[in-house]
Structure formats: structure tokens, C-alpha cells
Design brief:
- The structure is a single chain.
- The protein is an alpha/beta fold.
- It is 44% helix and 14% strand.
- It contains 21 helices and 16 strands.
- Strands 3-2-1-6-7 form a five-stranded parallel β-sheet, sandwiched between helices. Strands 8-15-14-9-12 form a five-stranded mixed β-sheet, with helices on both faces.
- Helix 5 runs parallel beside helix 8 and helix 6 packs across helix 8.
- It starts with a strand and ends with a helix.
- It is a multi-pass membrane protein.
- This is Phospholipid/glycerol acyltransferase domain-containing protein.
- Pfam families: Acyltransferase (PF01553), HAD_RAM2_N (PF23270).
- One of its GO terms (cellular component) is membrane.
- Belongs to the GPAT/DAPAT family.
């Protein structure tokens, strides 16, 4: 079987500088203070590189980004955050060559824990060889690596044995001493694929559908500086926007939003309010952020209750619209929705959770069983600095992060009410109706339908089924206090 060895940075991904990925680890696994410290040291790192001490600069990045961080948090960031940014930077020409070989191995000086998930799942590599973080007995990273970078070459030799790889891909000035000399042939970026073999066997990398983290842009030094400078102003602006939204009537919000930098784009014709002769309309929406039903109510100039599955009590308390909390017990939830529709209109997001990428998760069929007055609504949003959703963090902060963006934009597209022949009244199954609504909403937004569910998302990003436990926050606080006590305990000999 023909095999290929490829460097990650500068080859399979275009950017040879891993600085932004360590910035992501610093921000998402630790805090904005570590994020700021690493940015402050960026000139030092560049100075070391200019004097030929690239490895020293990399070690400094590793230390500042990971020292004292629980290894479980670094693993979570590597699983839920980094793959999205790596994927956006893939060099498709290099991937085309890499994917055409039977055995694929990726080599990097970045800690293996940061890249392994992306490399194996999305680039379909068989093995990844990188540096290894040292972890103390409490499960916290020390910031140092095992056996320096020289051990990478030894591990490559151990993995290959007597086999000589067919091809080595990498930037010669960075990786030649690591593995290129072990290969029969060598290729260096930029790669131009003229071999028809590569075109015939080309399969696109596995897309990133689920990802987490608050930063919407790659934190390059310039972007990171903008984020740090904007954050205090963004918090102030978010406070003002939320206060104005709570104080003003719904119909005034779309008009006042541009004054504070926001924008709501409305397409299509919404239905009139429910009357005494008609039961309420069920607005079936795509789910992009927790703000979806609030924005819909603002566009319709009236407060419309929204079905909620698993949001924090604080979010419910601050919500400017009524919420109908479901239990996930089918019969009870169906009765709740029916009762609400008898009173008036209702908003439901049958995906059950948000999705950031241009994909729609599988629609629950429950809504199709309960009414024939279904109006699909395609919702989408655009932000600059911060994502307004999270699976691992504090969900109550989602609206704050949304309003911290300089110019948050929402797009609301009303589709026509489903004709009778497209509903269960005509004999269609609820499953068929739900799939039909999913397809027309996906087509409106230019998205792709999937069979993934809420549980799939949370198992990938958070390692749970996505149900908010009332004790989860207390447990998280207890864990934090316990970890702090452990650190203090290790420091006692030095304090005394």
C-alpha cells in the first residue's frame, strides 16, 4: 500500500503559523486574560523566529496557552472549536494529493491533543504524530512537552519500521529534518495537481457541522487586538441594546435597531394575527440562536409565545416574550402545544437546538401532528466577533454575546402557509410533513438537510445529551472550587 507523510501547518492547512490556534485554546479553554497575555507576547515570539529560534517561539506559545489548564478543557476545545478553523484553512490541492494515498500520516510540532480530532475525522488520516503535553497528577497541563521536538523523528521511524513512505509533503525549511528525508519522493507547497489519479480518487474532507466556542473570527494578532479593544465597548453596547429591547414595545424594535447598529431584513408576507374564528398559526422556524422567537415577535409587532426545550431559568426570566417549557414527554408536550394554539399563535423550532453551519438538523414530527395551520419561517443571522450560541458554556450569556457584536444582522423570510394537501389532513404522515418543511426551509436558505439531532450535536460538542440539569451549575462551581484547592495545596511548600 502506498503511503504519504504530510506536515499539517503550511501544507494541509495553508497557514504555516499556529499562533491563532493557541490563541483559541487560551480564550476557549481558559480566559480572556490568558488570551491577552499570549497576544502581548506575540512580538517576543516573532523576535525569536527572526533569530532562527522558531522552536523556542513555539514552546513559548504552548506554555502560555496551556500551563495550568485542565487537560479535559484542552481536549474539549480540540474537539469542539479547533476543527472549524482548521477546516476553513485547508489547502485543497494538498488534500487532493494526500487523500489519494492508501496510508496517510500527518506530522506536526503542535501538541497532538490539539490536532488529532480534526486530522483523523476530517482529513481521514490514519495516524498523527505531534508533540506530547506533560500533565500533572491533577490532570492539568504543565505547559511543557515530553522529550522535546526531536522525539517526533524517532516516533515516525518507529511507526514506519522498514517501510519507506512513497511521498513526503511539507515545507522544506521547517519539516525537512523531521521526515522528508525518510520518503522516496518529496513535494513542497504550493502543490499543483496535474495527475488524473488525484482527480479520480478525490473525495472532499468531511465537513464540520457542529462546532462551539465564542469567537467567530480566527484570532490572528490583528483580529485578536480588535476583539480585546472592542470587548469593553461591546459589553456596554449589549447592555444598552438589551435594556432598550426590554423597555420598548415589540413594534418599535425593528425601527430602533439601526440606531444601535443592528439590522433586521424581512422577506415574504407574514400572516395576519389569529382571530376569534381561527385558531393560532404555528410558526415553524429554523433555529440559529436563542433570539429567533424574539426577533420573529418583533417583526410581527406582537409578542408570540415560544416553545422551549432546554434553556436556563435566567434566560426565561429575561425573555421579553412568553415561553412554553416542554418536558420531552410526548403526550404532555402535545397537550401543551394544543392548548397554546387555541389561545393564539405559537413559535416552534423543531430542530430542538441551534446549528451554526449551513445545515438543518432533523425536524421533530410532533408539530405536524397538532395543526394544519403551519407557516414555515427561514431565519438566519450574521455576526462579526462573537457567536451567540454555545453547547459547553453558559447559555444565559448567549443573548449578551449576540448583542456585543458591532453589527448583528437577522434575516427573516416568511414562506406561504402550507396548503391543505401538504399537511396531515390530506393523509400525509407527520414524518413526511416534517421532512417537507425541512426541505423547503433549507432550499430557501441554501442550506443542506441532515438527519442529525440535538443529541448528536451535544454528544460531539459537550459529551452529554443536551438536557440542562438544575444542578449542573452548582456541580460546575463545586468542581472549580475543588480544582482551586488542589492548586493551593501544591503551592503550600513554596508559600511557607
Amino acid at each position: 500500500m502506498e503511503s504519504v507523510l504530510s506536515e499539517l501547518e503550511g501544507t494541509l492547512v495553508k497557514n504555516p503559523d499556529p499562533f491563532s490556534y493557541f490563541m483559541l485554546v487560551a480564550f476557549e479553554a481558559s480566559s480572556i486574560f490568558r488570551f491577552a497575555l499570549l497576544l502581548l507576547l506575540w512580538p517576543v515570539i516573532r523576535l525569536l523566529e527572526s533569530f532562527g529560534q522558531r522552536d523556542a517561539g513555539l514552546k513559548l506559545m504552548i506554555f502560555v496557552a496551556t500551563a495550568g489548564v485542565p487537560i479535559s478543557e484542552i481536549e474539549a476545545v480540540a474537539r469542539a472549536v479547533l476543527p472549524k478553523f482548521y477546516f476553513d484553512d485547508i489547502d485543497m490541492d494538498a488534500w487532493k494529493v494526500f487523500s489519494s494515498y492508501g496510508k496517510r500520516i500527518v506530522v506536526t510540532k503542535t501538541p497532538r491533543i490539539m490536532v488529532e480530532r480534526f486530522v483523523k475525522e476530517h482529513l481521514r488520516a490514519d495516524d498523527v504524530i505531534g508533540s506530547e503535553l506533560l500533565v500533572n497528577r491533577f490532570g492539568w497541563a504543565t505547559g511543557f512537552i515530553k522529550d522535546d521536538f526531536d522525539s517526533i523523528s524517532n516516533r515516525i521511524a518507529e511507526l514506519l519500521g522498514d517501510e519507506q513512505p512513497s511521498l513526503g509533503l511539507g515545507k522544506k525549511q521547517y519539516s525537512g529534518s523531521l521526515f522528508l528525508h525518510l520518503c522516496k519522493e518529496q513535494s513542497h507547497p504550493p502543490l499543483i495537481t496535474t495527475n488524473k489519479k488525484h482527480d479520480h480518487q478525490f473525495v472532499r474532507p468531511l465537513p464540520v457541522i457542529f462546532h462551539d466556542g465564542r469567537l467567530a473570527k480566527r484570532p490572528t494578532p490583528s483580529t485578536a487586538l480588535l476583539i480585546l479593544l472592542w470587548t469593553p465597548l461591546g459589553i456596554l453596547l449589549a447592555t444598552i441594546r438589551i435594556a432598550v429591547g426590554l423597555l420598548l414595545p415589540m413594534k418599535a424594535i425593528p425601527r430602533i435597531a439601526p440606531v444601535f447598529g443592528g439590522k433586521v431584513i424581512v422577506k415574504g408576507k407574514p400572516p395576519p394575527p389569529a382571530s376569534a374564528s381561527n385558531s393560532g398559526v404555528l410558526f415553524v422556524c429554523t433555529h440559529r440562536t436563542l433570539m429567533d422567537p424574539v426577533v420573529l415577535s418583533a417583526v410581527l409587532h406582537r409578542s408570540i409565545p415560544a416553545v422551549t426545550y432546554s434553556i436556563s431559568r435566567l434566560t426565561e426570566l429575561l425573555s421579553p416574550i412568553p415561553t412554553v417549557r416542554l418536558t420531552r414527554i410526548r403526550d404532555i408536550d402535545a397537550e401543551k402545544i394544543k392548548q397554546q394554539l387555541e389561545k393564539g399563535d405559537l413559535v416552534v423550532c423543531p430542530e430542538g437546538t441551534t446549528c451554526r453551519e449551513p445545515f438543518l438538523l432533523r425536524f421533530s414530527k410532533l408539530f405536524a401532528e397538532l395543526t394544519d395551520r403551519i407557516v414555515p419561517v427561514a431565519l438566519n443571522y450574521r455576526v462579526g466577533f462573537f457567536h451567540a450560541t454555545t453547547a459547553r458554556g453558559w447559555k444565559a450569556l448567549d443573548p449578551i454575546f449576540f448583542f456585543m457584536n458591532p453589527r448583528p444582522i437577522y434575516e427573516v423570510t416568511f414562506l406561504n402557509q402550507l396548503p391543505v394537501e401538504a399537511t396531515c389532513s390530506s393523509g400525509k404522515s407527520p414524518h413526511d410533513v416534517a421532512n417537507y418543511v425541512q426541505r423547503i426551509l433549507a432550499a430557501t436558505l441554501g442550506f443542506e438537510c441532515t438527519n442529525f439531532t440535538r443529541k448528536d450535536k451535544y454528544r460531539v460538542l459537550a459529551g452529554n445529551d443536551g438536557i440542562v440539569s438544575q444542578t449542573s451549575n452548582a456541580e460546575r462551581l463545586e468542581k472549580l472550587v475543588r480544582g482551586f484547592k488542589q492548586v493551593v495545596g501544591t503551592c503550600k511548600p513554596f508559600i511557607h
